[in-house]
Every structure is written in structure tokens, then in C-alpha cells.
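Hi team,

Filling in the usual template for the complex we talked about on Friday. All components are listed, including any nucleic acid strands or ligand strings, so the model treats them as one assembly.

SUBMITTER: L.P.
PURPOSE: interface mapping
COMPONENTS: four
RESIDUES: 710
SEQUENCES:
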Amino acid sequence: MRKELGPGRESTTIERVAERAGVSSKTVSRVINNERGVRAETRTRVLEAIEQLDYQPNLNARGLAGDRSFLIGLFYDKPGDYLSEFQTGAVQRCREAGLHMMVEPIDICGPDLARNVNTLIRQLRLEGVILLPPLSDYAGVRDTLSKAGIPTVHIAPRRAPEDSPSVDTDDRAAARQLTTHLVEHGHRRIGFMRGRPDHRASEQRYLGFADVMHARGLAIDPQLVQTGNFEFSDGLECARHILESRDPPTAIFASNDDMAAAAVCVARQMSLALPEQLSIVGFDDAPVATMIWPQLTTVRQPVRSIARIAADLIIQHKPHRRGWPQPVPRPRLELELVLRDSVAPLSAVSVHPPH
Amino acid sequence: MRKELGPGRESTTIERVAERAGVSSKTVSRVINNERGVRAETRTRVLEAIEQLDYQPNLNARGLAGDRSFLIGLFYDKPGDYLSEFQTGAVQRCREAGLHMMVEPIDICGPDLARNVNTLIRQLRLEGVILLPPLSDYAGVRDTLSKAGIPTVHIAPRRAPEDSPSVDTDDRAAARQLTTHLVEHGHRRIGFMRGRPDHRASEQRYLGFADVMHARGLAIDPQLVQTGNFEFSDGLECARHILESRDPPTAIFASNDDMAAAAVCVARQMSLALPEQLSIVGFDDAPVATMIWPQLTTVRQPVRSIARIAADLIIQHKPHRRGWPQPVPRPRLELELVLRDSVAPLSAVSVHPPH
DNA sequence: GATCCGATTGACAGCGCTGACACTTCGTTT
DNA sequence: AAACGAAGTGTCAGCGCTGTCAATCGGATC
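RESULT (copied from the run log):
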């Protein structure tokens, strides 16, 4: 019945290991699953046999018999650097726990969103899912997952679901620091480029900015607040609006580095000297932050740590079976400012040439 | 025996579908696997039952019984934009074939490279593996895979293995075009920044450059050829070397956009007007290519297409069982120039200020 | 009308492992 | 010294599906 296997694929079964160690297959199973109730000496013997035979348990069989899958899903919307960093971190943590990671693009615009998600989780029998923003806020995905009873961790959701954990960063506090940094360099009139409205980060970053402006009694000119959806191309537009306004700012706070890069481009096209005539800050410490000149003052996003923590939440959840512990864990990480070259103190020089 | 399942997880089995359709489970199985030898009317009936019951076959069980896994591996070395684009393309193709993709970071520097790979492929029983560069040239990985008899597709390997397919792009031809473009804009003295030596792309891009230079009887000054490993930071170094040399070039060919961006930075720091005083071209059409000013003239890499083709090769391979068809497929894609703003015709103005 | 053949369908074992539970030891308790 | 309980180990069925092979069906053949 077995299909012809390629060379070197004759799989060692648990039985063979058992035989060699002089125990039953069940005991080998116990050792593999690290269950208690195996005498230390027996365990050693089994481990040796496994080693010698170079035995690798068959995940399909383990899954079928134990009604598990050893699989965690990572659902994303848009590929990019963030995703690939995240998945790398998450996989690391998963490996320690003997789990694997399925990285799946989910098209929010697709017609059968819920259907696709359903297929994924039920065919694969995922043991947990991590939702990257903005998926972490999409009802279609969230509901499907929750109806299916799949442990889910939401990354930076705008509204954290009551019954499942989330991992957050304190973007608001970081935005405050960044704004303070600008203000302390003498900037009073500051432009702001908002991100995608469906990201929590967008609102938090703006709020942090507003916090400081208000606290210092500085006005926020609506003309200088534009929404760029975290995209470089949109950022170009926004930057133009802001810089070509009647009374342009001396600094711009962009909600991410891509948009900050856009601001840099526009400023350069307008022949502004950077950072002397215009200070710019970004957010995320994306690759582009150090690939342009001046290098961006920004906020480092500890993506891999977030990923590890998220994976860990799923892994730790396993024992509970059904329902998260009370209270539902909601770790929030502090962000760290990265001071580089794109901010300069406001001086007499920084007057825009008329246009 | 069954573990308590969460709400909504009572799984419909193949038996229930069979019952509803009034056939045996085996027939349902045939329909699921799209086997021939099922009367059209029966097939319809089964399909209806599947639909009504919202049945999702259990992959673990299918795998165990059929000695398959429905899993394809994508092994990578370094996260980044390229990876995430690639995986997105590959997953798309896989889904059409009912397969899933395991994206796995492989640490080439890690001590137990072969061991780790082995664990992955044998536990997961991957049906095929796609190797991203530079993994596609690492003997440790290649041998392990080939010994295990796993169908493998190599992306842009320096040396394509005889017995397994690879997917390539014609980097050399593209580099020729790019160089020609430069030369036709009047550039004679051109600097070159090489990529990581263990990437095929590095050598091909250089060869293409050299082809044109030789053909046109132009000298390649060794002083102006530096190796930057595809990294922005290295690119900074290289660019400095090149631009601070006694007799600096009027154009630089960087082997990827990150390094081209570095050249832009350095040039800017040296107060060179871009592109008037220095033309720069990159390669890959990475995100950064349009996030700096001037936007880079470069070569578009059809990453998703490559990914789809690679996935397809694995999928198509399935029926053959053991060994690829003769001859082993080696698709090679043409690359497309993207003309932007970083190249200017050489004119009297483009004289470097002394330093 | 009997025979034959390919097309369709079903019965059944078993993939490699784990859950439930039974059994065996062995150190304690009374 | 008998009874007891915990720890350690084994037996066995069965997870949900597919491969094998036998059975059945329908029409073409002679």
C-alpha cells in the first residue's frame, strides 16, 4: 500500500524505536511528548534509541491521533519588510516549542474572506492564529476565528477584543517623545502626516503628537495635518500640501518612515536644505530610514520581540483549553527613540524661500 | 477519546458526506481528489453534499493515509521585501493546487544546518522545497534535500544542479541594457558596485556590465569596482571609495537598489548635483528605488512571477514521482528596464568639484 | 441471449501515532 | 504483614482518510 518512497526516505517508525529501547511504543510516545511518568533511566534509553535511529515522529500521525496540528497561522494583508521580520521572529519562538508556522496572505478585499479563512483553519486545524494589522480589526476574520474557537492573538488592534489577547506598543508615548524632541529643538509649527485610518498606530501616533502640542499650548493647524495611509506615494501628496501651504511648518512629523522619506523628497525638490530648513521625523525605523540622507530620526519598532511574544501567547495558551486566563494578557511594549540626522534646531536661517 | 472541541468545531467527516450523498466514503474521497472514474452525476451529488455540510477534509488524515503532506517548503536566509513578495506569489499558486506553503528561515551559519533541514523535511514530509538565493547554492542544504529525494527548485543558483530545476532571470542581458543606457548618455568612465559574491546575480550583473564596456572599448578601472554585498551600509563604503578616487566616474552602476541608494547618499554628502553631476543606476526595483530622489533608473524584478513559476514546477512535478522529466526545466525570465530620474546625459557641467 | 470489457463503486485494512484504561511495581501506611 | 496508592508501563482501539482489490453495472460483441 505504501507509495514508493524516494531513496533515504524509509521512515523510522515509533515501533522501531520502541523495539530498540526495549519498551512499548506508548512509552516512546510519552518521551516524545515530554509527558511525566517515565522513569529517568527509561527516558534516557528511549532518547538514545531515537538518536541512534535518527527518528523523526510523523506530524501527520501525531496530529491525527492527538487531534492537533502543531501549526500556528500568521495572517497578513500586505507583504513587506515588517511581515518578513515578524514571521522570522515568530518562527523562532515556534521552533522552540516544536510548532510550525503557516504564513498566509489574506485578501481583505476578496469576496469570500470568511470562507477562505474557514477553509484554512479547518483543513489545517490551526492551533492558533496571529493577526497582523489591519487584519486584527477586521470583523470578518475575527468572527470567523472566534466562532471556530481558535486562540487568536491580535497585533496592535484598534479595539482589542475582550476575550482574546493582543500585543501592543506604546505608540502614543513614543509619539509624545518624538514631538517633544521637535518642540525642544524650537519647532512650534509642525506638520503631521497621518497613516492608514484602519491602523491603531495611526490614531495613537496622532494622539501622542496632539498631547504634546496641547500641553505646550501650541496650535495644530488643520492645513498641516494630512492623511497618507502609510504609503510613500500618498506621502508625496501630503508633503506637498503641507509644504506649499501659505504658512509652511518648520518640521514635519510623519507617521511612518516611508512617508517621512516622501517628505524628504518633496523638500529636496523644493530646494529646502535638510535638516536646516525643515526637520522631519518618521516612525518604525524601517530600512528606508537609514537609506536616505539625512537619515531619519524615528522610533524603533521591536518587531521580532513583538512576534516572539505573540507566538508565545499562543503557545502558553495551549494548556488552558478553551478560553484565555482571566485577565486576558495584553502586553504593551515600550518604544525607543532613534535620534539621527533629520532634526535640526530651529534657527534664524530656517526661513522658507517664498514660492 | 476525542478531546473536547471548541464551539463550532464539530468536524464533518467524510462518512457523513458519503451518507448524505448516498455513496461510500471512498467515492467521496475520489471526488475530493479529483480522480477519474466517477460518474458525472455521482460527482455532482457528492459535491452538493460537501457544499451543504460545509465539509473540509482533514489534511492530517489525508496526509497520513496517502503518505503526502500537501506542504511545500520555502527556505530563506534573510528576511526582507524580496522574501515577502516571493512568498505571496508562491502561496497564490499553491492555493490553486490545494497545497500549503511553509516558509522557513534557515540559518546558514547555524551549526546544525543539515540537521535542521532534515528535521523540517522529515517531520513535515514536505512534498517539495523552493530554495531562495543564496541557499540555492549551499551544498549543505542541497545535499540534504537531494539525499532525502525531495523535489527542489532553485532560484537563481550560481551553479544549477543537474538533476533539479531552477528559475532564473537574465540578469546579464539586463545589465547590458542598463550599461548601454549609461554609455549612450555619454558616460565613459563608470563605477561598479558588486553584490554578495555568493549570489549568482552578482556575477551576472557584473558580466553584463563588462560585456558592454568591452564591446565599446571602454576601460574598467579596478579602482572603480567595489564589492558591497548588496547591503546599504557596505554601499556607503564603496561609493566613497569610488567617488573619492583620484579620477572619479561620471556614473555608477550599483548591483542593487540598496547600494544605489547608498551611492545617492554619499554623492549628496559630497554636494554633487544628481543626476547632473553623477548618474546612478540600481537593480531590482526595490521599494527604496522610488523612495529617494532622484528616483532610480533600475531593472524590475518580476518576483511574484518567479515565485509562481517555481511553485508551479513543484506542483507539476508531482505526477512523475521520482526524478524530473528530461530535460530538467530551467525557465529564464527576461527583465525589464525601468527608466527614472537618476541618469542624465553627460555634459560639460558634469565635472566634479575638486576635493 | 450469453459473454466480455471497461467504467463505476464499495469493502476493508491500515497509515503512525495517542487517549483511555488496565496492569505491574514498589515504597508506604496501619 | 496485609492493604494501599502512586508511579511507571503496556494493551488496544481508533483518529479520518486512501490504497488495494473485489464486486457490480451497463453496454458492445458475437
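MY TAKE: Chain A touches chain B through 64 residues (CB under 8 Å). The domain at 71-169+303-334 of chain A is CATH 3.40.50.2300 (Rossmann fold).

Thanks, L.
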